[in-house]
Amino acid sequence: MPRPFAVTGLTLFFALSVLCCVGIRFCVLFSVLFILMFIITLFNKQTRSQRVLPVAAFAGVTACILFAVNYNLRYEPAVSLDGSVCNVTAVFKDSGSNRYERWYYEAQTQEVNGQNKSCDVTLVFKNKLNTQPNDRISGVFTFYKKESGSSLFKINRSSAFIGAYPDNGDNSVTVIPSDSVKIPLLYRLYIFRDKLKTNLKSVVSGENATLACALLFGKTDGFSDFLYSKFKAAGISHIICVSGLHLSLWAVFITKFLGRIKVKKRLREIVAALFVLFYMALTGFTFSVTRAGIMLLVVLLGSTLFRRGDSINSLGIAAILILCKNPFAAGDTGFQLSFLATLGILLFMPHISEKINEKLKNKPGFLRDIIKYFLITAAACSCAFALTLPVMIVTFGEINIMSFAGNLLVVPVVSICMITAGLTAVLPFFGPISFLKYPAGLVCSVCAKYINGVVDFLSQYRFLTFYPRRLLSFIWLGGALLITATALYFASKGKKITAVTPLVIAATFVSMLVVSDVFYSDLAEVTVIDNKNALCVLVTKGNYSALIGCGADYYSTAYGTCDELENRHIDRLNLLIVPGNKYGESGALNEVLSCVETDVLAYSEKPDYSVSLAEGSRAVEYGGRFSMQLCDGCRITVINDETGRFALIEANGESFAVVYEAEGSLPESDFLLCKKETALKTEAGLYKAIVIAGEKDAIQTQNAVNNKGIFCAAAAGQGGITVSVSPDSGYKIYRQ
Fold first, then answer.
1. Between 332 and 546, residue with greater pLDDT
2. Which of 10, 314, 489, 637 is deepest in the core (most CB within 10 A)?
């Protein structure tokens, strides 16, 4: 049987990806189907002799068992803590990372309310803690379930399914330093990594050091959310996440260097394999690093044993090892993109490279090398793009064509920047030659500055980033799969139509983008963000956007607001309204301002915030009333007087009232957006629909209001609620 590990690994990956989408309730059904498939293929002589389908069916059954066992033993015990306040003792697993002006630490609980309970958890703090891996922390924490990064996946977490924050602020916790003698080896590596980062930052400074650390360790601690969004807009955010690109560059560098000093081939491949293993541990065994590392180890050690490695089989082995350890990795977006991009390159690039070499064989040497580099890079990007496109559409709702230009301009410099960054970090440990860290750091700084410059330039041109409508995207994906299946069927019958298939799929793809851009640009959308008990409303029409309220009752609400802005690809708000200077209405203001730039910040009384507004932005203190025309057909008015505190939105002929406080009667409008207490005051006939912001208990209010004969929908931890209004005032209400 050809490539048994590839068949097993691919089946595990796709089966577990589907299970992460549909959840545990379909696990038994899928198990039965795979068992039936296994039995049927055994009775068929042809499939039994080829062994591909029986192996795939057996792998499918294994996937279901792995999913069910881990769901019951790991997932359920962790998420059962959601909403509880517990006395916790936990051990730190890393040195923390910063995002949205919060510090996030991966940890593992040891005791919960005095009972031994071990589960992975992300601890959230306002301020950075003076800790290192293996230190312990003790205190009272409030737990919350970490939501999926995509509405499609029921489970989409690489390790920790639950998060926690101190119940009474950062000062209520106690950090217990670890015994330096008993620090586990892996944690010692993390401490060593922090020392390397310190060495690097002592020579390279500013954003250049931030980028160099990201290239070297895959850690974006110093990245501001705005800087990260620029890398994403330029289509090259993958370079700051250590993956196959980085490991391959190091492996090639080591083998080439050892080859120069006449080290035997077998020995230099063993050294390269040992370094790959060390580097995997140093970067924390993330999915992308582990997948790439296992592939490289299989290839290097296979070559050492005088056997020719098979890259697709190696990818299958990597998938088997990762998914057997953590089946939920199949639902992790980073792993999906890494796995599918690698699969696309391995499947298509050998044939394409052969064609390119054949076409260029008569060209002059230097010219041939330049043309070949650009063609190979563009082809590799296309191969990776082809298989990762479904994930980008489903998870991000985004298609970035700019990545082709970004990779062509940046990837060659990345290798130089990363290797010189590594030398700058390591050389201080070698006393006599430590002075060489300065020239290495200089080269690293120049390369990092070039990369940041390219990112600044490319991120300004957003016309090559497309945001197709979700429904159209799914229709196109289904059609593309049908076209591909039809082409494969006719190919099996000897009819050569496979060459036309990519052209047909590309034509339908372009049509989908045109339809999305032309027919949906005039839609106005008003969304109540699913943000715990905070009432935050996002208004969008075309390229214009406004956010009303940025409150936070919990740490996770800030994360929810910024995630919604990211998911809708908003990096600049035309208007940000802070209804009142209360924690539930302005508590996440700093996080929002650090996430997006804002043209106008309007508030009735000045809230506390430390993030400076971008150049050209202005702050407006409006007192009792403020009104702004967001764009044609969309106006927002905020009122703060004796009648209450609320905002009125006029969008494509429909009106919305966003009520924070109301004295007496509620404002007149077509739709009411509010908290549960306000919704209970309404009577039938006042509004076309009511949308409630709130946690799970908001469902009870939703049902009570529906019983009055009023259409009501509550976010309630199940996703934001959007009212979409067309130019003819037709509307549709749906959950994100």
1. 546
2. 314
